[in-house]
């Protein structure tokens, strides 16, 4: 039986993650695109035949089907007849070179003793750029007393049980040299109590204390200020957050769900 880190993460996610009530993505647009693609496969094939380079043909065919989907790049998948179509929203599609089939989902490469999620690996670089653009001043950071051996970005929700469990063990992460940078991802949306609680914690005179109190189920005084909570929620959707907590490593790898400090340190090679 093949084993892999991606599959283990999927199983862990089912056990250790709080799922959002809604997750706005471009998936509905993709589904519509797939239906239109099925109806229009003949015209797409003709377009692919005359457009020139195969990557350009795939791009032209998809854009002809829908102007609602912005295509960032089209690249050939090594050792495969497929072409990776990266959307500006962060989603990835795959198209055959003759333009008659389109696939939405993750592509895995079967190695002798492992399965490699090629789609997820392709997302890492984009995540690194997006996370690097977030200023530290817009986050709540819990740092080690000693040297920082690694930094993780954690998309978190005030009321998520596993988010609270992670934060209750925050000293275990920092004791191992792991700096935790929190970003907001209120699962129930921007009109929810969780959103308002996060705004109040962020805008408090001492955000670290307020966030700790809120995650312990204690009340936090209402507060308002210019804040990045909505922007971070949108960023979470863009980088692939589908539940909380979600951990983004410096490499761009996204780990869904709670991971104990010692286990996470081992995964990062600390």
UniProtKB/TrEMBL annotation:
The UniProt entry's sequence similarity note says:
Belongs to the thioredoxin family. DsbC subfamily.
- Name its cellular compartments: Periplasm
Arranged from A to Z, the UniProt key words for this protein are: Disulfide bond, Periplasm, Redox-active center, Signal
**Stated name of the protein:** Thiol:disulfide interchange protein
Primary localization class, coarse: periplasm
- The residues covered by the Thioredoxin-like fold domain are 154-266
Q: Which residues cross the membrane?
A: none
Q: Which segments constitute the Disulphide bond isomerase DsbC/G N-terminal domain?
A: 50-120
Q: Which GO terms describe its cellular component?
A: periplasmic space
- InterPro entries, per this entry? DiS-bond_Isoase_DsbC/G, DiS-bond_isomerase_DsbC/G_N, DiS-bond_isomerase_DsbC/G_N_sf, Thiol:disulfide_interchange, Thioredoxin-like_fold, Thioredoxin-like_sf
Which purpose does this protein serve, as stated in its record?
Answer: Required for disulfide bond formation in some periplasmic proteins. Acts by transferring its disulfide bond to other proteins and is reduced in the process.
């Amino acid at each position: 039986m093949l084993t892999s880190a991606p599959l283990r993460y999927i199983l862990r996610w089912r056990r250790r993650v709080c799922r959002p009530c809604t997750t706005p993505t471009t998936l509905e647009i993709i589904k519509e695109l797939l239906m239109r693609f099925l109806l229009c496969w003949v015209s797409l094939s003709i377009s692919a035949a005359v457009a020139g380079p195969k990557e350009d043909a795939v791009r032209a065919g998809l854009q002809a089907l829908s102007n609602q989907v912005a295509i960032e790049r089209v690249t050939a998948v090594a050792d495969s007849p497929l072409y990776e179509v990266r959307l500006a929203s962060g989603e990835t599609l795959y198209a055959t070179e003759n333009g008659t089939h389109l696939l939405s989902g993750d592509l895995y490469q079967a190695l002798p003793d492992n399965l490699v999620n090629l789609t997820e690996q392709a997302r890492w670089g984009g995540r690194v750029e997006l996370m690097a653009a977030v200023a530290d001043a817009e986050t709540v950071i819990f740092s080690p007393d000693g040297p920082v051996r690694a930094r993780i970005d954690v998309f978190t929700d005030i009321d998520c049980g596993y988010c609270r469990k992670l934060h209750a063990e925050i000293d275990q992460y920092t004791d191992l040299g792991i700096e935790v940078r929190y970003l907001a991802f209120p699962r129930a949306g921007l009109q929810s109590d969780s959103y308002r609680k996060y705004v109040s914690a962020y805008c408090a005179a001492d955000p670290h204390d307020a966030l700790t109190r809120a995650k312990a189920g204690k009340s936090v005084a209402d507060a308002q200020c210019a804040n990045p909570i909505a922007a971070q929620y949108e960023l979470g959707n863009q980088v692939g957050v589908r539940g909380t907590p979600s951990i983004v490593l410096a490499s761009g790898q996204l780990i869904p769900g709670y991971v104990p400090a010692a286990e996470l340190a081992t995964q990062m090679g600390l």
